[in-house]
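Here is an idea for our session: we take a single protein and study its fold together. Which protein we use is up to you, so please pick one and set it down. Once you have written the record down, we can walk along the chain together:
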Amino acid sequence: MSMTTLQPSMPGRPVLSGNALAIGSMITWSAGLPAAQILLESWPPLTLSLARMLLGLTVLVPVWLLREGRAPLMRTRWGRALWIGALGFGIGPYLLLEAQKLTDPVTVALIVSCAPLIGTALELAAGTRRLTGAFALGVAASVLGGLIATSALAPAQLGFGALLAVLSTGIYCWASLASVRDLPGLSDVGRTAATLAGGLLASTLLLALFHAAGAKVLPRIAIDLRQVVMLLIYSVVALAVSQALFVAAIARLGVAVSTFHINVTPFYVMLIMLALGEPWDWTRALGAAIVASGVILSQMGVKRLA
């Protein structure tokens, strides 16, 4: 995918739909964080990651085939798709699960506030983004919003888990961009399914290595209905649906602007936890408002187009 053409930003349908897709992606992804926290009480992170990929693909592949038939499978660059998926959606999510195991779901959502910087750096390095004053202000507002929300955390919660979350975020941003850029001719569902197949392959190999090394790979308690429901939320909603929406947003907005929306996830997580009885947090609400202003600012000047 070429995104080198620059022209004044217009509030057209691709921009509006791209932002709507990014918002939907972040809401569905946020729904998976509390579910993952519950599952991590009894599931080893790598086993959970593998189960998540498998269930996600169980939904995505039939949808892909029903919508487009078998022809797209034949023209897919499977070597590239599997490599992108193995690194970005196999290794990356595993690191994020380890980070969440060491911290908590809100901390993970806040730590990934570096995503706009990573996304912008990727586009600048590729020469597909020109850094304008409005866009720079948008990046600053997005990061500031994330930092304001992060300030509510106790310093003890930051450490090795935070480092894993940052590393996972960088890998995820690269893989999401590469799935759009390096797999032309595929639909958003097709790109998501093909790369998640690589994630499943990597997760399977990692689990086999861990098992051979003597690590425990089975859930510590019997799987009940509550775990099944949480696993469906975490795999179908927060992976299959969320990633397909995010890939679609990147195709319309680019990875930099799409990742701005990641910094609103603490607010979405707070809303979910609010429904579960947790109190309202004005700090996270303020952070979300500042991030939203950054999204608007970033699209007022010059943008890159597909």
Remarks:
- The CA atoms of residues 274 and 280 lie 6 Å apart.
- The beta strands are 5-8, 302-305.
- The chain has one domain: 5-305.
- The chain is about 75% helix and 5% strand.
